[in-house]
Structure formats: structure tokens, C-alpha cells
Amino acid sequence: MKKPTRVNHPPAVELPPDNHALVAPIYQTVKFHFDTLEDTERYLRGERPGFFYTRASNPTTRQLELLLAELQGREECLVAASGVGAISQTLLALTKQGDHIVCFVETYNPTRYVIRRLLGRFGVTHTMLSIEDIAGVERALAAVPTRLVFFESPTNPVTKIADIGALTRVARAAGALTVMDNTFAGFHQHGEYDIDVFVHSLTKYASGAGDVMGGAVIGGGDLIRGLRTDFGTLGGTLDPHAAFLILRGLKTYFVRYQAQCASAQRIAELLAPHPAVARVHYPGLATHPQHALARAQMREFGTIVSFDLKGGLQAGAHFVEALRLFALAASLGSTESLVLAPQMMRGRDLTPDQQRISAITDGTVRLSIGLEDPDDLVEDVNQALAAAQ
User: In this structure, what DSSP letter does residue 241 have?
Assistant: First the structure.
């Protein structure tokens, strides 16, 4: 074999059957092939396992899918290039012209955009309510045949808690699917509820380091497998190297999440009695209006602490600019603590009444608690509160 050929066909290295890599290798390849045309045709007919093209599936991304499905307590998973990609592709694959969606004001802004604007252009209608309005959900489901109910819990950014049992019960009675964005709660929570589809941003707690993006949709085997062709055709594929980094991040998922939740509880308890603070939104506090519901549904209360400063926009600006350890940045769930100012969170797509329902005020600040020493975080928040006053 001449050298220009050899560099494109390097010598194969195969592990002996009893010799195993402790960490699975990255299958950083787009294409796979079989030894014969017959085997290739059998694969394409679905008659044998294997891989052919990474846009459809890849061993590294498949390992991630199997792990995430098991963590969430379901049979199947599909991963995507981002959390919003997972949401968009799921909604596109599950709906068609003439379908109706029940959704909520207290929902991630890009999700609202997909449902209201993108799907709306293709003839999918929606009813948008408050996550606390179970009676309104029942009325909406009774009034219009509904394809799915889309919700999240805790909500972003003010951590309202959805009554998951009630929502799934009324949706099931009406023949509607339930799709839950479970990103804030994590993969180890809410799996015992009758949710048809979970979506997650892997960019947050799964990765943990804030250096890779990804998304996942998790559910029953037949339902999720039925989405695979649409996902592959839409093309929002997670890269194998990104999947490897997320798999690596998941090794520390539980220790990170638990430590961050403990720090979040401490920060919330610091904020609650402070004279500069009007209200703290953290389900781990007994003063949270849905604390009992959160205790019944969750093992941990999450790493997001939102609160309302009495001084409004100006106080919020002073607070975030005085912080030394919290980066003024989007996202959450990474090792670094982050903060969002009030100016960054108002729903410009919402009516005044919907903004009231959202509970985001001119003084609302969102903290994402990282892995810094809790004493240092407490000191930083205290000095920033002093600056806010």
C-alpha cells in the first residue's frame, strides 16, 4: 500500500476481548460501514443492530442516551445539540397543523417563542395560562381537543412549583400528552410521575462545567423511538465529542447538585430576613407558597435562588455590579456562580397581565449557585446587598 493510501487507511488497533477501556472511547466519526452489502441492507431495513451515519446515531451519543434514560427512570432517550434544540425538535415532531397546546406564562422564553410564533405559523394553536391555574387547564382541555400540555417545574426564574400529579391527571383524562422541561429539577427527580416526555438542557447540570451544549428528550420506548427519524432529518445532532464531555460531567452530577443545593438553601435563608429584600423565591424555604408541594415532589429544592429587591431596577443594578464571585451571565448549573439582573429577565413578549402572572418584578434577581465555598458566597452576597441599599 502506497503511503498516500496508508494515511487514509491506517492500521487497525483492536482490543482483545478480555481487555477493556475504563472510559469508553469517543467515536469521532461521521460514517460507519459493514463488511458486506447484505449486512448494510439488513441494517437499513432495521433487521440488525449497528451504526451507519452519526446524524442518526453514534456509539458515544448512544451511551449518553442510555445513561440519561436510566437516570430519569424511562426506557429511551434522544440527544440534541442544545436544550432548545431538544425542545424545538420534540414539539415539531409531536405536533401537526390543527393541533392545540396548553402551555404556561411561567415558561422559558425560547419555549414560549417556539409554541407561540414558530408552531403558530404552521397552524398549531395554544392556550397560555398560569402554572397555578389547574382549573383553567381543565377548562381549556374540555374546550379544545389538545395534543399536549407543556410545562416546567421549578419554573424559570422564580421557581414556582407545578402540581405535577394534578397536571398529569387532567391531561391524561383529556387524552393529551404531557411534556415537562425538567432541567431545573435534574434527572433524578420527578421520574415517578406520569410524564410522557421529559426534556432537559444538558448544558446545565449534566455538563456542569459550562463548556459544552446539549439537550435530551426522554420517555417511553415506542414514543421516543418514533421521534428518531424526525430528529435525524431535522439535523440538530449532538457531536460525539460533546457527548463524551457530557458523559464525563455526569460522573460528578450527584455530588455537584447536592452541594449546590445545600449552598442555595443557605443563601436563601440569608436573603429571607434581609431588610433590602422584599421576597425570596426558593422552594426550600418554609415561606415559599408551594413549599409543601415541593417537599412532596422533590428530593432537593434546586440550585436557583431568585429574590425581589425593594429598590427595584436601580437596586438590582447596584447588587449585580457589586458581586465579586457571581458572573453576570446566562445559563445555570455550572461550577461557577452566576447572576441575572432584573433588566435581563422581563418577558417582553408578555402582556401586562401575563407579566404580573410571571411574578418577575423590577427588582427580581436570579442567582445560580455554584461550587465555591459557601462562606465566600455568603460574604459576597452580604456585601452586594449592602451596596444595593
Answer: H
Q: What is the mean pLDDT of residues 56-83?
A: 98
Contact 155, 105 (CB under 8 A): no
Residues 230 and 110 in one domain: yes
Q: Specify whether 105 is located in the same domain as 176.
A: yes
The one-letter code for the residue type at 96 is K
pLDDT at position 374 over 80:
yes
CATH of the domain at 353: 3.90.1150.10
Is-contact 369 267, C-beta < 8 A? yes
d(CA 147, CA 175): 8
Nearby residues of 99 by Cβ (< 8 Å), 6 or more positions away: 124, 125, 147, 148
Return mean pLDDT, the chain. 96
Q: Tell me the average pLDDT across 219-247.
A: 97
Residue written as grid cell 398549531: 124
The last residue of one of the domains, among 250, 270, 294, is 250
Q: How far is CA 16 from CA 13, 63, 140, 195, 207, in A?
A: 10, 21, 60, 43, 32
What pTM did the predictor assign?
Answer: 0.96
Strands 215-219 and 76-80: antiparallel
Look at residue 23 and tell me if it is in a domain. no
Give the other-Cβ count within 10 Å of 274's Cβ: 18
Domain holding 304, by residue range, is 253-388
Q: Are residues 242 and 333 in the same domain?
A: no
- Is the dihedral angle over the CA atoms 364, 131, 253, 68 positive or is it negative? negative
- 14 found inside a domain: no
> Would you tell me the crossing angle of helices 253-271 and 374-388 to the nearest 10 degrees?
40
- Looking at residue 130, which CATH number applies to its domain? 3.40.640.10
- Give 70's pLDDT tier (boundaries 50, 70, 90): very high
Q: What is the pLDDT of residues 110-161, one digit of tens each?
A: 999 999 999 999 999 999 999 999 999 999 999 999 999 999 999 999 999 9
- Which residues on adjacent β-strands are paired with residue 281? 306
Q: Which residue, 250, 276, 294, sits at the end of a domain?
A: 250
CA atoms within 13 A on the CB side of 23: 10
pLDDT, residue 177, reads 98
